[in-house]
Amino acid sequence: MPIPRQPGAANGIQHGTEAGDTMLTVKxxxxxxxxxxxxxxxxxxxxxxxxxxxGGKSWRANFTKDGKQGTKTYGKWPELSLTDARRAHQSSRSxxxxxxxxxxxxxxxxxEWLLKHLxxxxxxxxxxxxxxxxxxxxxxxxxxxPIGEIRRPELVKAIASVGSxxxxxxxxxxxxTAVFNYALDAGILETHxxxxxxxxxTPRKVKKPMPSIPPSEAGELMRxxxxxxxxxxxxxxxxxxxxxxxxxxxxxxxxDELREDGFIWVVPADRMKLKSPHVVxxxxxxxxxxxxxxxxxxxxxxxxxSPARPGHELSENTLLFALYRMGYKGRMTVHGFRALxxxxxxxxxxxxxxxxxxxxxxxxxDAVKAAYNRAQHLPKRRELMDWWGQWLARETAAGxxxxxx
Length: 405
Prior knowledge:
- The chain starts with 12 loop residues before the first strand and ends in a 7-residue tail after the last helix.
- The chain is α+β, with helices and mostly antiparallel strands and 405 residues long.
- It is 45% helix and 10% strand.
- Strand 4 (57-65) and strand 5 form a beta hairpin.
- The chain has helices at residues 26-31, 82-94, 106-117, 124-142, 152-160, 166-185, 218-226, 231-243, 247-251, 284-297, 316-325, 336-349, 353-359, 367-376, 378-398, and strands at residues 13-15, 39-42, 47-51, 57-65, 68-77, 258-259, 264-267, 278-281.
- The chain folds into three domains: 9-94, Integrase, DNA-binding domain (Double Stranded RNA Binding Domain), CATH 3.30.160; 106-200, Tyrosine recombinase, N-terminal domain (DNA polymerase, domain 1, Orthogonal Bundle), CATH 1.10.150; 215-398, Intergrase catalytic core (hpI Integrase, Chain A), CATH 1.10.443.10.
- The strands form two sheets. Strands 1, 2, 3, 4 and 5 form a five-stranded antiparallel beta sheet that branches.
């Protein structure tokens, strides 16, 4: 018995087959909720509603042309009603000479993703790197291809073009996957071939923790810093030791960020890793360091204004190379002051772990708990920072030779 032909089969286009007598209702469409993965609700004649993980709903139908499968999208619900979607589908089936829609190119979708993704990155250099990796490694091979037609081997070829740079290859793979995920959530695709793309790459090297001295050597380090010849660099390292903030938070410090007559420093959200303002109570020792810096840089907006480039922040390398010159290369970094403080405070201070974590500005996974910590822990954090300042002072003084020697 011959197989009945769908309308348009004579022109090489065969639309999806009937889905039985089941037909959608407006009530069923409105009740459809997003799931972890996109899914279909069939109507009739091959028409179906596709629901994305983000909750978007679009009218679609699959077709086969010249042996190749494709998907036609008629519009989004509720802009395109159920009745109008059926009419559009029927018109498409009875007028096969109209070329079916194709998906936008990878480059077009990537540009949309970048517009939404890049503003969330605080570091301008990082924003440029994200776009540059796609332009250099993805666009030459898949940029002009319709994203719905790209197959897994093409993606493997694209990331293979990176060569032996393992870290860069993983970044390219991650950004390609992010573009495909965006296309999935936007309703452009139903599935995609970029999942777990990095598994074809050489595994990343496990990053070693930043070097940090043991607490028993803290006094010796502080004495070495006190003898460093460049005054601004010396005071910058001492201030980092007493505040144990992240390096970028310290280097961008401005005088107008000080509060309560200099007893509190509020790091603004745009310099914080967690994008939330961070309060740093300042010990007597930290305030004394700031007094010295005000004598030098009080006329500048920047607390650590660079002597070599006035009006610019002191660089991280300036602090790091100072540690190298003191003999701490491979043993201590600027970031290592955070690890040193965390070790001492957790092992010796007697303060609650939540207070310590809050002062280190580590991420709190429980939102309610995080709000409670911000509201309740500041008095204890003041005590903690005073304790830390006194501990550093004791360790520094412990190994000093008497003046008479």
